[in-house]
Amino acid sequence: MDVPGLDGNDAALRDQGALVKTELAAGGLQVSIDHDRCSGTGYCQEGLPALFTVQDRRAWLREDFDLATADREDVEDAAGTCPWFAITVEER
Ligand code: SF4
User: Fold this and answer.
1) Residue 20 in contact with ligand 1 by CB distance below 6 A
2) For the CA of 40, the nearest atom of ligand 1
3) Is residue 41 in some structural domain?
4) Ligand 1 centroid from CA 27, angstroms
5) Residue-wise pLDDT tens digits, 45-58
């Protein structure tokens, strides 16, 4: 999967077996990142690096993160650190 805007920096993540995307859904939960709001501050990555990664000044979701068994509070806490409200966590 090619992700627009990564400029090839996704290669390292792919080597780790991690594809990145802006939407991830599993276990009745959906996490989305709005790149029109994200400014690349990296707070989300600091909060939960297993899920969030910053590449090319934008946050991405690691596809190898097991959202289905993740602690929802951990995901919501990390999402809540975003100063620009760029991360949405919702039931689906
Ligand atoms: S905390 Fe928000 S603005 Fe900062 S990198 Fe994450 S999504 Fe982007």
Assistant:
1) no
2) 5
3) yes
4) 23
5) 999 999 999 988 99
The CATH number assigned to the domain holding 56 equals: 3.30.70.20
With a 6 Å cutoff on the Cβ, whether 85 touches ligand 1 is: no
CA distance 26 to 70: 10
Mutation choice for ligand 1 from 84, 85, 88, CB with most ligand atoms inside 8 A: 84
Residue 72 domain-assigned? yes
Name the CA dihedral angle for 74, 80, 54, 62, rounded to a multiple of 10 degrees: 40
Q: Is the dihedral of CA 51, 34, 58, 47 positive or negative?
A: negative
Compute the average pLDDT of residues 25-43: 96
Neighbouring-strand partners of residue 62: 20
In a domain, 76, yes or no: yes
When divided into structural domains, the chain yields a total of 1
pLDDT in tens, 50-81: 999 998 899 999 999 999 999 999 999 999 99
Question: Is 5 part of a structural domain of the chain?
Answer: no
Q: State which residues form the domain around 38.
A: 10-91
